[in-house]
């Protein structure tokens, strides 16, 4: 994004607004591209922001670290980071701290050991998203007397949403006393292509007979899995029930088509809220360590009514 207020390149916005560096995860999903669009349009429209330096790190942590180092060299006013994974940030975030540049996490989080190296995180409570999925599954399969057999497509290995969506889901299944078996659980890296490939492997290895539920950590992997299920001659949403997380238009359309059964919303449209947080941090205001974005969950009775409201 080029400077909209003619901000100089000294990194301090020349007094006519903030220069912000944003190291984004990548462009792996509809959620991600909607999140990038929301942040970029909010920065563009906000006269308090002179320039947003945007980097798409293609889901590569080294590229994200390089982007943060460049923001430090350019002496931006605030660094925004959506960390692709939870670990490996200590050194570069310490460098930002040493340079006196505050860091705001957008979307994903990092390990607790590094909590002092960023000011605040604006994003989802991924554990709560997992709990919502688990609550629906425990209710849906409560009467399943021969044990509920579950396949899981995990998000990017080591990422906060993958770790926490898994933890929240099984925390509830265990708390509700559901009798279940994890038939298999692998990462599809939040992409449709990898989600489909892993589902094909699940089908080849285990077959689908008697598998009750697929829990996919995002829409893309769930939609890729649906293709694999159909290509194997099974009916998604009926032969195997499916939960997805995000709530994209494509995900809701698949729900309307009866191909999946529960959608846990993860809200990417928080650009304006993020700009407010960035300005507060730049002004040295005290902010909460975590600000959760608002989001819900939807079952088959709600898909049709909700589809027109979906923004990505
Ligand atoms: C969650 C976000 C995840 C989405 C995926 O906040 O980090 O990354 O659920 C995206 O679609 O790839």
Automatic annotation (TrEMBL):
<dbReference type="InterPro" id="IPR028082">
    <property type="entry name" value="Peripla_BP_I"/>
</dbReference>
<feature type="domain" description="Periplasmic binding protein">
    <location>
        <begin position="21"/>
        <end position="285"/>
    </location>
</feature>
<dbReference type="InterPro" id="IPR025997">
    <property type="entry name" value="SBP_2_dom"/>
</dbReference>
<dbReference type="GO" id="GO:0030313">
    <property type="term" value="C:cell envelope"/>
</dbReference>
<dbReference type="GO" id="GO:0030246">
    <property type="term" value="F:carbohydrate binding"/>
</dbReference>
<dbReference type="Pfam" id="PF13407">
    <property type="entry name" value="Peripla_BP_4"/>
</dbReference>
<keyword id="KW-0762">Sugar transport</keyword>
<comment type="similarity">
    <text>Belongs to the bacterial solute-binding protein 2 family.</text>
</comment>
<protein>
    <submittedName>
        <fullName>Simple sugar transport system substrate-binding protein</fullName>
    </submittedName>
</protein>
<keyword id="KW-0813">Transport</keyword>
<keyword id="KW-0732">Signal</keyword>
């Amino acid at each position: 994004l080029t400077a909209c207020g003619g901000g100089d390149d000294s990194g301090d916005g020349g007094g006519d607004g903030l220069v912000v560096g944003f190291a984004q995860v990548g462009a792996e999903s509809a959620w991600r591209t909607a999140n990038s669009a929301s942040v970029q349009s909010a920065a563009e429209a906000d006269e308090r922001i002179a320039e947003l330096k945007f980097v798409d790190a293609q889901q590569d942590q080294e590229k994200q670290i390089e982007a943060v180092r460049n923001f430090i060299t350019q002496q931006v006013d605030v660094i925004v980071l959506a960390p692709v994974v939870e670990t490996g940030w200590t050194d570069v975030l310490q460098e930002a701290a040493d340079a006196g540049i505050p860091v705001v996490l957008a979307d994903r989080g990092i390990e607790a050991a590094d909590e002092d190296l960023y000011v605040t995180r604006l994003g989802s409570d991924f554990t709560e998203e997992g709990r919502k999925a688990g609550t629906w599954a425990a209710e849906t399969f409560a009467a399943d007397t021969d044990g509920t057999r579950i396949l899981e497509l995990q998000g990017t290995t080591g990422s906060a949403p993958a770790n926490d969506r898994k933890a929240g889901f099984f925390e509830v299944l265990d708390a509700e006393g559901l009798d279940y078996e994890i038939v298999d659980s692998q990462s599809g890296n939040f992409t449709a292509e990898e989600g489909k490939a892993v589902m094909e492997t699940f089908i080849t290895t285990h077959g689908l007979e008697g598998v009750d539920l697929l829990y996919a950590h995002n829409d893309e992997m769930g939609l890729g899995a649906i293709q694999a299920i159909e290509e194997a001659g099974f009916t998604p949403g009926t032969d195997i029930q499916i939960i997805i997380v995000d709530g994209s238009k494509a995900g809701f359309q698949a729900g309307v088509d009866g191909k999946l059964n529960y959608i846990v919303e993860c809200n990417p449209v928080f650009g304006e809220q993020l700009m407010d947080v960035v300005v507060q941090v730049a002004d040295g205001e005290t902010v909460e360590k975590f600000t959760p974005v608002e989001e819900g969950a939807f079952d088959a009775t709600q898909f049709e009514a909700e589809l027109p409201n979906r923004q990505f």
